[in-house]
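Milestone M4 deliverable, item 7.
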Amino acid sequence: MDEQKKTHSDVIVGRNPVSEAVRSGRPIESILVAKGSKSGTLSVILAKARDKGIVIKEVSPKKLDYLSGGAVHQGIAAIAAVKDYSTVEDIFQTAEERGEDPFILVLDELEDPHNLGAIIRTAECAGVHGIIISQRRSAGLTYSAGKSAAGAVEYVKVARVVNIPNTIDKLKERGVWVYGADMNGGLYTDTNMTGPAALVIGNEGKGIGPLVRKKCDAMVSLPMFGKINSLNASVAAGILAYEVVRQRSAK
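Output delivered:
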């Protein structure tokens, strides 16, 4: 039986298939290895993956059983990305080619792939030049994210970086003003975001991390009139992105 016959569409299982995926340069979101299974050929595969900067996570054998859908996983699986990641420089180049001020979304440890996909879809519609996500503790370009993006993943550049705070510093060095979404910020419609801009959207539960918060030039908030004090991350990203569009159009 084909090792991957019953797996999820973005999961590669088994030592040989994973090894070949790493060797070929196929975009891989992360590699999952069963706890305590790092000897023999597994150690060789993991070493090659580390050399390529692929995220490696230890998981329980039960999780691998579930992801493999009954196929023989041999203690390892890879989550394939639906598209190659871009670079931050690619995002700036897109803005330059369009003759526009850079318009970037920065996602600080956003974990839900459906939220990521929804944000990618909104970003494409709003003319965002690219999205920056962190390499660890974040949703990536998995099948689930790609499906939620409804095709937009083909048109929006997504860059994955090791360190979000350092990346924000580099954005600011290039003249980009950074605005963080936070319930304690100033009213979003009162903040001028007409120039080169990056919107920072935080984790679904924790929001923007303390260090990332310090790097922001300003914090902006959406008014809340109900009993719940926060919006879904993708909804907040959509509202703020279109506020940037509105302000730029009104110039």
